[in-house]
Amino acid sequence: MSRDHILHRVRTALGRSAGEEAGPPPPVRLRLPESSVESRARQMLACVEALAGEGLRAATEEDARACVAAAIEGKRAVASNAPYLERCGITSLPGVRSGITDPDELRDLCAAADFGITSADYALADTGTLVLLASPREARLVSLLPPAHIAVIPCGRILTGLDELFSILPDPAAATSSMVLITGPSRTADIEQILVRGVHGPGRVMVVVVG
Amino acid sequence: MSTEFDRKIHETLADAKLQLAIYTATGRLKAKRVEMVAAQVLPDYQELRAHAHAIKKHAIENLDHYLEEFERNVEAHGGKVAYCKDGTEVADFVLALARERGARLIVKSKSMTTEEVDLNERLEHHGLESVETDLGEYILQLAQERPYHIVAPALHMTRYDVADLFARRLHIPSEVVIEKQTAIARSVLRQKFLAADIGISGANFLVADSGAVVIVENEGNARLTTSAPRIHIAIAGIEKVIPRAQDLATFLKLLARSATGQALSVYTSFLSGPRRGGEIDGPEEFYVVLLDNGRTRLLPDRGKRESLYCIRCGACLNACPVYRKIGGHAFPWVYSGPIGAILTPQFMGVAHEPALPFASSLCGACGEVCPVKIDIPKILLELRSDVKKSEAREKQHRLETLAFRAFAWLMRHPRMYELAGRAAAAMAPSEDGGWVRNVPGLMNIPPVRAWLSQRDLPPAPAKSFREMWRRR
Amino acid sequence: MSKRVSLFVTCLVDQLFPKVGMAMAAVLERLGYELDFPENQTCCGQPAFNSGYRAEARAVARHFLDTFERSECIVVPSGSCTAMVTHHFAELFHKDPAALERVHALEKRIWEFATFLTGVAGVEDVGARMDDVVTFHDGCHALRELGIAEAPRRLLAHVRGLELREMEPAAECCGFGGTFAVKFAELSGAMARTRMEAILRTGARTVVSLDPSCLMQLQGALSRAGAGVRTMHLAEVLASR
Predict the structure, then answer these.
(1) pTM (whole model) above 0.90
(2) pLDDT one-digit tens code per residue, B82-137
(3) Structural domain of A155
(4) CATH code of the domain containing A47
């Protein structure tokens, strides 16, 4: 069997024996800068804008609902089952479908929708990144199939950056089968290095920071 | 001496349109990288490089340990791991699974590892449809070409080339607007994503302590490949394993910056096993294929095994003055540029293209930009020595060998060296005439002829330095 | 350190560009150094090393070690040849502890010309004058193996009448690369022409470098193109007055 063959070749080449422990790896390198919620929120939105996304600040949950309503204008939208979207009243907006648990139904709806609306488990201020963990509350396709993605997050979930994310989630696999970091709209530069947004994922990404 | 390699170099150099395309594209990527690793933007860039190098070194030195840890953790999350020693085994694995599940259509996201083993051709040979979904890779699959560049696979093609290709292969009217070409690919491939039975991806990292596969991309095709079909197979070289998820904080800061000059790529997917209870979508089956395909051959050599630290960012290609002239297709295997020049001889054997390690001015730009600090110039030099040893065994290039022996002897005998120098100078034109276009007495010497094919030669000075020094 | 210096002029300067060696000697003497030219010197062995002939390179390197055994301080008008000694001799003798010890001792005694001036002699102004517009070409080994970028520019900044214009892009290879220049002549020539275009864009009339080999490549291309730009080693610029 190739497994044993390959592992044997590796061990022979490295002069190791089966089951031999590894020495200590280099120490983990995570730097956690101090930063206020307010400065993280501002940095997050500035980075989203710099990536050609749309960054909006909503003072309250009602304001967030209004932001989303204005963006979707009653067009077809699928909202994830994130409790925060319900709390903001976004799931009850006209045109918005939510509460879907059947995978086929969800796929068909997302494939036809104009907007996918999610929350996010975290956001990374220094890169303008949304962090979504797949769960019964967040399906993968909502942020992927529709041409536009709207994410609504309370400002308290914005972290400084990757280092803080991995210090909070040292092993993301313990929490989910899929964690995705989304940094701006889908893009390509594969033809003549000309930037085009919205290749396979959403070409439009709107982030609403609440609070 | 006119090998296939020489011929392709000549053809690329002679193609003015291609020269401009390569130089402009790599120049742009190069400039973006410089901007994103500048001290004001990323003050700890050099520390991150050193840390990334140390982690890779540790992971490779304990590779069996981390592969087994990775395997255990994938299985703990309900996934399966298969070890394959070559392309045949990979294809057999995919074919067997496809047969068992009745799968016909496969969507693929970009993976250099599957390019190594010509996976698409192997699968299509057995009646499966395997569709590349990265825009550049899709274009190349239609054109039946291999990637020109690790991160910009269709770098050599213009919008007009793409328009002709789409018209011919998709039977549509010619479309030259890049946004519209992209939209065409999106709609064709969207149908494939929704209909596919299996998604095959590569992996940028395999995380041992999580049993996770990490995939970095900009288009969203890798997310679709790994989310939409019922089965996800990730195919990765065994060297891709890193010890901890927390190490990603280091690698992710370096990868996109080095590759495309982004702080992070648009999508970074961290995938561990199939969809879990309660999760609404995602694959029901999750496999990781760990491919050797020659990698274990690189492990015994403590110096050269550094080649396996590569994270496929392509920065060395953009920095390389040779790549920027000869492009990707002149290289004899799927990996091009400086990293290709050190991987190819080690994977395929030095005899595959013995001239390859010599096709470098050893300027060191590749080593300077490598985010994991692979000493590419040093490895090139070692490979040159390996080539010469192998040629000596095969009794090839004996004239060159004799010439270098004579050189070494002469350089240890200063009197003879001086006489030889004066003898050569006597045959060369004198100082008064300036730099020369030809040297009649020496044109039969191949290096002289080669030099003069491109440049002028200096005239011989009336006296050597040592003669001038003696007469001071 | 005493004011005594041994010259290693390199085989290229000895055979083809003796004026570079004489200029270097003139600058060093002007600064009060007593010079010595070990007559047994030939080459550092780099051509063989870079071509994959390590045994041959080792033999030449051993000759170099013998020749400069008693030199307290060696100055070289080439970044590339200096880097061969300081960065690659050790690889050649990694299985020979006695030779390796001599190599490590030698590494501390050998200097590229510009860094010797700024780092050891402690001068930036050598009293030179040259009325000219020049551009500076970074030799790859000087820049990337030895980390030399500032020293030659500081020295040029003190040359009266001289205007330095940097190339864009900076720090790109001229395409010389030793035997690469003849093994891949067409490619090497194309690289030289790209570098030449960068030189011409500056409007400079003279290209200055620390490495005679880069200058040979560039002058060869400039001359072939009839470009009317000359090349000079830094030592020649600093010797002008």
Answers:
(1) yes
(2) 999 999 999 999 999 999 999 999 999 999 999 999 999 999 999 999 999 999 99
(3) 34-186+195-210
(4) 3.40.50.10420
Q: What is the mean pLDDT of residues B17-41?
A: 96
- pLDDT per position as a tens digit, C116-143: 999 999 999 999 999 999 999 999 999 9
Reported as a single tens digit per residue, the pLDDT across C142-172 is: 999 999 999 999 999 999 999 999 999 989 9
Interface contact flag, A192 B253, Cβ < 8 Å: no
Q: Which residues of A touch B276 (CB under 8 A)?
A: 176-177
The answer to whether residues B150 and B314 touch, using CB atoms and an 8 Å cutoff, is: yes
ipTM score:
0.98
Q: Find chain B residues with C-beta within 8 A of A25's C-beta.
A: 55, 58-59, 243-244
pLDDT(B2) > 80: no
Top-confidence residue, A59 or B430: A59
Question: Which of B62, B178, B249 is the closest to A166 by Cβ?
Answer: B249
Q: Give the number of beta-carbon pairs within 8 Å between A and B.
A: 270
Mean pLDDT, residues B266-276: 98
- The pLDDT of residue A1 is 67
Tell me which amino acid residue C65 is.
L
Long-range contact pairs involving C32-37 (C-beta distance under 8 Å, separation at least 24): C32/C3, C33/C3, C33/C4, C33/C5, C33/C121, C34/C3, C34/C4, C34/C5, C35/C4, C35/C5, C35/C6, C35/C7, C36/C4, C36/C5, C36/C6, C36/C7, C36/C71, C37/B466, C37/B469, C37/C6, C37/C7, C37/C9
Judgement on whether residues B125 and B232 belong to the same structural domain of the protein: yes
Find how far residue B80's CA is from the centre of its chain. 29
B321 and B428 in a common domain: no
| Domains held by chain A: number | 1
Q: How far is CA C240 from CA B34, C162, C227, in A?
A: 37, 11, 23
Which of B366, B396, B426 delimits the end of a domain? Answer: B396
Our count of domains for chain B comes to 3
Regions of chain A where pLDDT drops below 70:
1
Whether A6 is covered by a domain: the verdict is no
B280, A136: Cβ pair inside 8 Å?
Answer: yes
In a domain, B215, yes or no: yes
Q: What per-residue confidence (pLDDT) applies to C125?
A: 98
Residue A84: how many CA atoms within 13 Å on its side-chain side? 21
Q: How many CB pairs under 8 A join B and C?
A: 197
Nearest-Cα residue of chain C relative to residue B386: C52
Write the single-letter amino acid at B289.
Answer: V
CA count, 13 A, side-chain hemisphere, B433: 13
**Best to test chain C binding among B398, B411, B451 (most C CBs inside 10 Å):** B411
The whole domain housing B139 covers 67-293
**Position A66 in a domain:** yes
